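Collaborator request, handled under Task 6.
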Amino acid sequence: MLRGLIAALIIVGSMGPVYAKVVKPIRLGLTAVVVRENLRFLDRWAEYLSAKMDRPVEFVLRRSYREEMDLLGSGDLDFAWICGFPYIMKRNPEFLELLVVPIYRGEPFYNSYIIVPKDSPYKTFDDLKGKVFAFSDPESNSGFLYPMSLLTDRRENPGSFFRKTFFTFNHAETVEAVSRHVADAGAVDSYIWEYLLTLMPDVAKKTRVIKKSPKFGFPPLVARKGGDKKMVDRMRSVLLGMKDDPEGRYFLEGLKLDGFGVFPPSLFDGIRKMAERVRILQPGLSGIEESGEEKASVDK
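Structure tokens returned to the collaborator:
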């Protein structure tokens, strides 16, 4: 009996722990660049990425780009879907690596839209002087930097041009604020506005576009620099391969994207130049930081 018990203990011991090893999840940050109203869809996409990565992937939702950038800087995020404006900002040392850029309607570009209530009389940006304006995020290109460039062109600032301004920290909430006349106008991401025409038509169709920006590099997905190279390469491969995978195409269709692609950092030079101009002509303005030096053709 004793010999049998000892033999059983030896066998069990040789098998190692009987519980599953806890695997640290891959953390991917999201902010206002993704419409968060469909959280179940995001859960399913995380499950898809987890299966492809052979490791749990969890989305970390934050209200602002600043919160997301702080998490990237501290190493609490492995990846994030950010905006071109925080991407081009100067960091020393640099802690971001360009991962992939979404392809939207056949190209890696989007616009900023200046929107107003559909039943309003406003037709041009100049008609908005003395009105209430909604920005999205202080580090948003489409929701802050572009309208700031329009003010800079007029030698104006938010305080001198608008009666009142406020931040929504969410493009969908900007659209809703304008649709309900909480704001007379707002600046939003064209991708989000077009997406909401399908997801929330009763809200988006109560607004209209009075000004459209030039094309800008689409908000990119980035990796934390200095992380696990194999993990980064695999995540890039998984995202690039979604368009060739039936299940991946399902999620791309849900995101209203054609796919993801690899593009050089110069894709964001238009945002970089605009930020520099606003910073120089509006020194000390909150939210406008010095942009990074001209980057190489590819991140290293």
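The cover message to the collaborator said: "The chain has two domains: 26-108+218-267, 110-216. Confidence is low (pLDDT under 50) at residues 1-20, 293-300. Please let us know whether this matches your experimental observations."
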